Amino acid sequence: MSIEIKLSRFNRIYRPDELVEGKVITKLNSATSYQSIRLTVNGAVNLQVRGGSAGVIESLYGVIKPIPIVKKVMDIRSSGKIASGVSEIPFSVILKDPKEENLEKFYETFHGGNISIQVVRGYLQKHLSATVEIIVQSEKDNLLPNPVSPEMIVFYITQDTQRHPLLPELKSGGFRVTGKICTQCSLSDPITGELTVESSAFPIQSIDIYLLQVESILVGEKIATESSVIQTTQVADGDIRRCMTLPIYIILPRLLTCPTIFAGPFSIEFKLSIVITFLSDLSKKNPKADPKAPKPCGNGKCASRTGPHNVRIEIIPRGLVTSSSRGHGFII
Length: 332
Known about the structure:
By secondary structure, the chain is mainly beta.
């Protein structure tokens, strides 16, 4: 005995004003009676604390309530009987009906809303239920009419731009890394740019770019902010020839990114952190417990890294030609 929901679109992507169609498929060993077959559409912005978080955000967790987006309940069948074997029951629902007042706007984030089907049976019988997630794209009115032109910024990283202490040998020897990177891109396009190591007194072990998600919650008059790394891209592995231009090409992870959002009680932003790791002939005098201290390598050398050079980026909704997107419920 089983029940499942099969949507008409294999990618489960819809716009708020589109009709969501599908079938309820039941597989029964014997015929069963039911009082109703109920469909529920539920979408909300869930403000939650990530595992391992501590401090003020954790203390506020218990008082933060979800922001409802859509809540619909409808019966697709009244009382009746489902025959044994495989049966298919069609259904359809509009997420955002122009005649109805929605609680909130639909946000294009990286999780979706849920459609649940429940077969309500008799008092002594267990109800049958199934749930499927759908993904909501931005409304057509919110999309840009023309493709986005990337906005590039120029950056440079030297020993003088570091906000944390460097090893004396690295600070006196010096280094200079320059480049440019786009700060505005579509959700469906990669982040592009270039990077050049103009000079460095020590060999470079690696250059990495971290994509961070910055989530903020407004609670009363305070803003609680939390950053987390969602992707790491290695631009270079090993020492790099000086003055050689390296391309930057970062594909946004589909399940962990969304357009930049500034809503009333919350916001979701993204930024890039560029970190350069050097190799130098140093003793193992630095404590391993300090995450910013140089770490001994297997060859008797130590690695010293720069502090993160942060670049804030803006991700905008994808265009009409794009075939995939994000939903509207998310975790902070």
